[in-house]
Structures are given as structure tokens and as C-alpha cells.
């Protein structure tokens, strides 16, 4: 019998194709008793390995291949829990030796042994023998042999005190991998010294130098164990493994490679070792000594204080008093709820968790870090509200505590906390300082070889031309932002199947990519999660380090089972926008106005700063703005679809916004029309049961929140809230057997409680099941709606401050900045173009109606360049600027194109053409001696286009600013927030992006601008469309709800040629004289003099061009002639009230 001890899994990043679930299948199928894994200097997969092995009645042997100081390595395994703790310590210590290439010194082992000399040994963990795994009788002979063979731990006399120390580790040393030939004795002595007889000599295969193996074994009578390399499971996986190595090493896949690192069966190894059976048999003896099982542990928190329960109670009572709750008419309701929650929290031993979270949140608030009002079901806790974890009153908004925590919950409660991204690091530093550097760590996450990435990697190593690979990758569709798998992509893909049949390289590309897809590529740090340990973390799990930042080696899925509690500290940019807006308000209002007794909730700030937590939640100005769909810059409400919902709903309260947040999701979205009609009393609201009215009345008869499911179960079926939450979870999991059990019980109890028919109860169950598939918790929607409302309130009431702050924070996001600039202009606020003498680094409020442009928002302008300009301004003229400011060519060109020098020299073309003259660079002559005065100025259109190039929007004027859409019977499309069936629009086609649908159909996403904003459309790919790039276009579209789909698109000039008539509106005699004066130059007819328009009859003799019609208010229309369309005509009639017909 034989147990493989040398398996590397996919956690040996880019060095193994072994997936643990596939490994378990293979071992079970081939009658193995267990296996040992030795990933490369990590225990990333230890928890998954142990969990899946135990569940499959296989013995897990936990270890890893450890790098030594001399670039050699040994395999170290855990005999018991003490060994696991020591291996974790050694792995963590190795990063102190070298962050990039961690290793351990032999002295690290010696120092560890010395530190254990005076420590009482931990009580041995209960061993898991092979018999206890309930293996089949066919293994009984092997099991018995474990007990009858000699013990591997020999009683060797040792003079050193270190001989008394057992680190709980077993090790295997392969001679060729641990030392040079002439160093065998020295290495064997070290192994014996540090592992005290608990080690073996490893032999990879029979090609190994058996002389060296036997020599090392004989020195200390050390057993020899077979440890073949295993980097893939099946023999035919060899090429996939070789490809993986090429990806790792950046080499090409060549033919003629050879390796035998697959998982050999027992029969194959018995054949190989037919004349030397001990190395195979000794693997069983080795496995017997490694009894350690990495079992699930109960999460442990650091102790916050000696009496956490009493401390939590005191903080909660103090909190509701500070918030004035004890003075409310329904204060007893709050007191009862508080006592109920405290009872549950204390009974479930979660007081410490609440205190720890409240501590770092309240520290953040006191130290200038903006914190979100809450996130997730935790907002349903009154205790959390009282001690400062959340800013949402759960009783005010009907939030349910049991949705967050109840005695039936088996996992830890989970508060997700939003912080301003810029302050998040400060909060983490506070936590590290409070609990100790060795008690806090980030959480590892793994990047994998995804469909597009693996195709590109394999394509490169196969040397397939880049355009071929790029085309294939672009053909892979995405669903909700995630690329589909290669297997899914290949389904029913006739075109790809044809390519694979005709091109062997394409077939090989996909064959290899399919085998590698999903394997881990690299380790990185999870964006939000951290852990805080009750003791030094290296005693609980292995760590790695990234620039001295501790990171757990277990991923998010296994943190809790390792005995740790995860804390999610998320970064939310919207909080930075709110905080920045409050700063701008404070700067402007300081000393200028009295804001009453409101103070900031964002740290130590001026008394003049608005307190965002105390703004009124029913502000008419805010709700009116949202009802009109003016939601640019508003958290959660910016999408086209969301605007349409708000315009249709016309929210009249904050609670309406909570409902919108919950409804605007796949599934519940279908109920939006019914919700809106119910609000506006356009339909009669009916309830299946009368008892449901009080539950659904506030949502107009529509199920909107998960909490409503709990309330229905409680009020109609007589469930406790704990039972109701279990029902809600079962509905979410959609497990047929579990659902059938709940359905039977629910229907029975509804019938008993309401005396209704079984059919009616079934209808109710089906109704809530269909809703529960997509239901959103009100406790999550409410804090998010609050953040949305806060941004809307600031925009509606502190418009210029909010827009300035938003533009400052989006200075490097050109597309978003352009949208904000358009919105700012729409609201009547002027944005000054960049000015080298007046502009600052960031956007700045100049007065109540004006914002100055920030230099940071100009492309190719660095922070150091801005500091250079600001420190040396003002500049008298261009020569002065050139002499004193050291600016590179790209930056200079961007300044010119943005108009930053207009106050010094209005002719932008002049400085652009000559500033980089070689003579000027060498300072031989003045800049203005080089520049000729007669250089032609850029046209208005050229200036606008250059502005767009370096700013991403138009500051002074849009190229279409002379066109009045009303003349053509349309509106600017960007001003239309509501859904319409057909849309006609004029715009400048700024960009075209090529996309591919799930059905491999190429299409285009177009970005079009007009003087009021930018918008997107979708269209079929065509050469005609591509030819219109950067041109003024006329577009006919259909509104599909989520997007505008193009029916027709052509140059604006072509559309204008189709004008058949111009109707000029005449309201007075002065209008007639004005029209006559402006149009007489453009009327064309051989029978009519340009000096007169009196002889109308002559015009009809020879019709030509566009018919010109005068339309009077009380007289019949008069046709006065024909005109040809031209820019000159456009300029002549721009101030006249007219309308075109096509």
C-alpha cells in the first residue's frame, strides 16, 4: 500500500494543474487511503484540502515545500496541532527574511526550538487514525501494518537540551534538493538535530541517485519514503502543465518536452518499486505519525473589555439618551426593543463584536474620516444605531432586527462599513495600533486564469499571431460584467467549430485553455476584509506579507472556519464627495452666515460646516429635483432607467426613495409600473388577505422588501420572527426538498390562523416565493437611500458647492467630468475656462454662479507642473511665462489647446506653432521674434475640438451651439429624461466602441455630444457609421428603455439638404421688416431682384431650392421664394423664429 505525499495543488501558483475536488475524485476512485499536499512555500489550500478530504473519508496530511536559505528545499508536515502552529510561524517568519522570495534559515528552526524549551507542551490534539475514517475492509491489511512496523521516532540519545523539544513536525529531505553531494553529512545532521528523528529521506523515483539516498539514510538510520512529484493528475495533462510553466516563465511551448509528474496509481508504483518495497510501505508509517486534522474552529474575537455585556448595555442606554429617544412619545417601544436586542446579543456572545465595530467607527467619525450610515441587514439593529455603528433609526423605518441576528443564525453577524476611501487606511492603522500588529491582517484573494486571459496567455506561448487571439477574445461575451467561460462560449458556436476543424493551432489553443481555465494565477489582497485575532495570528493560521502588510494565507471562504472574524471596511467614493462638499460649504460660509447649531459629523471641523446627519428628510427642493430626473452626480440614481422611474413615480417622501432602491433590480423591476400606478391611485389596490394591508399599504400593495415576507409569515402563519427568517433563507436557497417541507408547514399554519382555504394559502405561498427569489432587504436599501438622498439634498440646496466637489473628485475621469460639466451648465452655473494666472490645481467656487476650471483636469498636466505654475504666477506675457516656467512640450500644448493662455495671447495657433522653435529653446531670441503676426487663428470649431481633446468637454461653446433644435422640431436628446417611443436627435459623434454580443454579433456603442450633454446609443456595425466619426450627425432612434437603438444615422449636412420648407413666424410689422432685411440676400429666383421681395407671383414660375414661407398670426401664409442651405443662411436666421419641414 502507498499514500502519495508529494502532491502540489493549484495553490502552487502556476506550478500545478491539480484541482482539489478533482484530486479527491481520483483518490477515491483509485482506492487511496489519503494523501499529503506540499504546495510551494504556502498553506493557501490547507483548509479546503482538509475539509474536502474529511468529507470524502480520506486522510489529509498537511504540509508544504519550504524554501531554505541556500535556495534548497525540504518538505515539512504537521504531526499535530503544535506542529501546525509552528509551521505557520515558520512560514510567517520567512517573509521577514525576504518579502519577495521568502525562505527560512536553519537558525529559525533552532530559535523556535529554544523558545519552546520552557513552554508547557500543548495538550495533543485527538489523533485521527486510518481506522476512524471508516474505510473499506480492503484496506484492513494496510491499517494493521501501521501498528506492527517499527516506530519512526527512534529513541536516540541526545546530549543537547534541544533533544527534549518536539516541534510537532515531520519532514522529508530529498538529497538532491537539500544539499550538494559533498554536503550530505552536514545536512543529515541538521535534519536530525532540528526534527529529532521525525524525518525521512525522500526518493522521487528509481532514477534518483540511490547511492545518495542510502548514504543519507544510513547516517542516522533514517527511513526512506517514496515521494514522487505530482503536479498534475492524469498522464495526458502533461502538455497542459508544460503550458502552465511557460505562462509562468514567459517562454514558448516547444515540442519534445518530457515530464512524468502525474499522480501514479498504486499498481504503477508497486511495479516501479517491485524490488524495494520499503519506500512505499514507509509512506503509510509516515501518514500514521501525521495525525493532524485542520478542523473548523469557532470564531474567536479579541477581548474588548473585561465585562463586555455590561459595557454594551451601558453604551446602548447612553446612546439612546443622547439621541433624544427617551423623550419621544413612543420611547417605551424603543426601550423594549433595545432590551430585546441586548438579550439576544448577550445570549449569543456577540457583545464584543458590536463593541469592536462601534469603537473603530466612532474613532473614525471623531478623527475626520467620513463613515456611511450603514450597509446590509445590520441597519435593522437599534443597538447598532444607539452605539454609533449605523445612522438609521430602525423603528422609524420599520427595519427588522431578526433579519440581522436571531438564535437560529449559525454564522457570525456581519457589519459592512463604508468609509471615505482616503480615510480608510487611517482606520486600519488605528485598529493595528489598538490590537497589535501581530493580531491584525488583511485577507488574501486569488486571481485566476479567466476565459479571455487564458486564451491570450496560451495564444502567446503557442506563438499564434496577436490579431487572431485578439479577435477571439473580443468575441467572448460578458454577462453582468463577467466574461462567460470558454465552455459556455464554445456551446453552439458553429463559426468557432469550423475554425477549430480547419486550423489545428486554434484547436490546440482551446484544448489547452480549457484545461487551464480557472487555475489560480496570483495572490493579492482582498479589497475590504481584515481580521482581528484573539492572539497572534501566526498561532492561528499562516501569513504572508506584502510590503510589511500582514495577509492571511486563507481566503475569505475559510477565514471563519479558521477561527477568525472578518471585518469589512469598504471604500465608498460617494462619502468622499459628501465630505468634500461639506468642506467647500464650510470654506464659503465661514464667517458669512449662521447655520444654527448644526455641527459636522465628519470629525473636528468648523462650526460653520453643515451637519449632513441632521438635514430634513422631506425637503421639497430635493424631491422636486429627483422627480424631474435631474440626477447626474446622485448616488444610485444616475442611470437612464432610474431617471425614468423617478420621473414616473414623482417621489414625495424619503420612504419612496427606499422603495425605488429596492425595486430597481432584476425581478422586482417588473413590479415598478404597478407600484407607480398604485401610488398615483390609477389602479385599485387589492390584497389577497385583509391582514396584508398593514404590511403592504406603504408599498401600494406590492411586495418590495424581504422584511415583508417575514411579516406575512408572522402575521398570517403565526411564525416567530426566527422561524420566518429561516423560511426566507430557504426561499433564497431554492432547494426543492427544503422548500417542499416549508410549503407544507406554511400552508397548514396559514389555514389554521386565517380559516382560509388551502388554495388561497397556496396562492399566498407562491406569491411570496416568486418575490423572495429576488427580494432586497429594506435594511440594506434604507442606508443606501439615505446616502442617495444626502447627495441629492446637497445638489439641490448647495448646488455650486456640490458640483465643484464632484468635479474635483472626478478630475481624472474624463467621461464623468464631462457629464458633470454639462450638468453644471444646465443649472445655469458658468464654468470659466482654464486660466494660467487665475486657475488653481482644483476646481474652485468663484462666486454664487461661477466655477473656475482646475488645472488638474487638463490632460498631460502633472501635479509637479501645476505646482511650478502656481508658485511662479502671475505671468505678464508669454515671454515671461517661457522664461520663468519650465514646462514640457506635451503640457504646453495641452495648456494652449485648453485656452489657458488666452489672457496673455488670444491667438492660440500663434503660440502653438512657434513655442517649440529651436531658436527659442536655445534662448537665442525672444519667443515673439520668432512668431509671425499673420499666423491664421484657429476657427471657432477648431478651438472647440482642441478643447475637447485635452479636457473631454466643451467649455466656451459646443460646435453645435449655433443650432437651435426647436427650429427642426426636436430637443437635445441629453435633456430628455423620460422614455419616448421614437427619438430624433442632432449631435457630434465623439466616439465609437466595438462590442460583440453573446451571439457573436458585432455592434457599436456610439457616444454623441450636444450643447447640453453626452449620451450613448447602440447601432449595427457598418462602414458608413465608422465614416461619421467626429462629424455632426442626425440620428433617428428607438428608445428601448435601457438604451437607444439607431434606426438611421447620416451627416447633419445631408439632413439639412432634405429641408423642403422653412416656415418663418411673423408676429409684427417689425418682424416682417427684420426678415426682409436678413433674407433678401439669400432668395434665389431669376425673375426677382435681390433688392425687393414685393413681386411674390414671379417666384412661382421656376421653383428651386428650399421653399421660404411667411406664417402670420391672423393672415394666410405667404410663399416669398426659395433659398439654398448654407452657413451664411444659418447665421442670418439664427435670431429669427423659424421652423424647418423635411
Automatic annotation (TrEMBL):
Name under which the protein is recorded: DNA polymerase III subunit alpha
Record-annotated DNA polymerase helix-hairpin-helix motif domain positions: 828-910
UniProt catalytic activity: DNA(n) + a 2'-deoxyribonucleoside 5'-triphosphate = DNA(n+1) + diphosphate
Gene Ontology biological process terms, A to Z: DNA replication
Pfam families in the cross-refs: DNA_pol3_alpha, DNA_pol3_finger, HHH_6, PHP
Domain Bacterial DNA polymerase III alpha subunit NTPase stretches: 311-571
Species annotation: Candidatus Nesciobacter abundans
Source species, domain of life: Bacteria
GO function terms (MF aspect): 3'-5' exonuclease activity; DNA-directed DNA polymerase activity
Chain ranges of the PHP domain: 7-111
Class of this enzyme: transferase
Enzyme Commission number, as recorded: 2.7.7.7
Residue intervals of the DNA polymerase III alpha subunit finger domain: 574-753
This protein's encoding gene: dnaE
UniProt keyword list: DNA replication, DNA-directed DNA polymerase, Nucleotidyltransferase, Transferase
